[in-house]
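thought: fold this chain, then report.
action: predict
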Amino acid sequence: MPDGIRHDAEVTFVNRFTVHGPAAEFEEVFARTSAFMARQPGFVRHSLLRELDDPAAYVNLAVWADRASFQRAVGRPEFAPHATALRALSRSENGLFAARLSVSGQGLEDLAEGLDDPVLGVRGE
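observation:
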């Protein structure tokens, strides 16, 4: 593990879409793709987000159990029509990411311990 990343750990697929077709149609096509992905082994969860200031911009955050599960899902022949339908309505930029830091709720206090960060307003001890 020379890069510090466990390759058998959860991964997040981040896909930013710029929709050039009707938004409602894109969301319908995406919902069908979502249903397909949710049935695949290793799928954990996903969120489709729409940018508040740019209604043509969407981001999908999909968490998978591991890289291999994600690659198997997108490699299935049944996935190809979903990808084609999404491409007909949008263009996308994507990547597969490994978590380096996760903080939720009260976790900021724990994270801040030992840090000097004027942006966060914390001083390390």
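thought: worth noting. The chain is about 35% helix and 25% strand.
final: tokens above.
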